[in-house]
Write the structure tokens for this entry.
Amino acid sequence: MQAQASSFLLSEAPEPHRERGRRLFRDHPEARALNGPNPASFLLILLVVGVQTGIAFLLREQPWWAALLAAYAVGAFANHAAWVLIHECSHNLVFRSARANLAAGIVADLPNVVPAAVSFRIYHLKHHVFQGDYRLDADLPSRWEARLVGTGFFRKAVWLFLFPIFQVLRPLRLPEIRFATPWTFANWGAAIAFDAAILVFFGPVALLYFAASFFFSVGFHPLGARWIQEHYLVAPPQETYSYYGPANLVALNVGYHNEHHDAPAVAWNRLPAVRRTAPELYDSLASHASWTRLLWRFLTDRNFSLWSRVVRENRGGVPVAREAA
């Protein structure tokens, strides 16, 4: 991979998923039967929230370090599954009604301590439409963020550990996107009420378990490599990568990221069928087999950093002014 020491890789090519999605459904019209929501996902939401609440109850009188160990070993996987289910809700893939999906996403968000489901929906849908557009894609690191983190092991490890904080700061550079809606405040109210109830009835160690599970699920943990896997360049100019390893079993097939971008109306349980239906579209693409190996490579390879991303300056044929450094 070419080192990108101080800039993203600028692409003049169109966003790749729209055309490959057209090819998928044109060459394999039977794939249209894979589209549609999966209401059973709401049962998984209730299961994840229930399991996390039950573990927090069991930990309520344990020492703080037991909560951290349990969060790393178990809670991170449960909260990561909750994130995948929030992602499903953002695409209206749990229920047919947008309102029902918003409400389900707020329920799935309860173990995460901080309210994020509604905001994630707003910015994630823009990411699908404007992938790589610095002014509209919150999945892209900010330039100041990439400069701050640099290429060394320690700073990249700290960045991963604090990833939720950096993610919260990115929308500040996206003024075109409306941040708050009535659903946003409903999300905040539900999260604050849930956190308060855990603190009052279970105590601070239980709340620590939820908070640690949240941070580990998206940060310094093999699961955190999922955020590196999706769009960080290991085989440029390819800009999206799938993961086909065994962790998809507990991560609800979130590794099938090319398939998801090409067919965003396909629910998580049917994503492997997209690849089976059109192997000629996916088997030739670079992919990952291990999140742990990817995490180690990201931390140790000085040519692999937050700059290892594709950006484009043209959205829908309308030029976008180059952002100041």
Notes: The longest helix spans residues 64-90. Confidence is low (pLDDT under 50) at residues 316-325. Residues 53 and 193 are 14 Å apart (CA to CA). Strands lie at 9-10, 242-243, 287-288, 310-311, 314-315, 318-319.
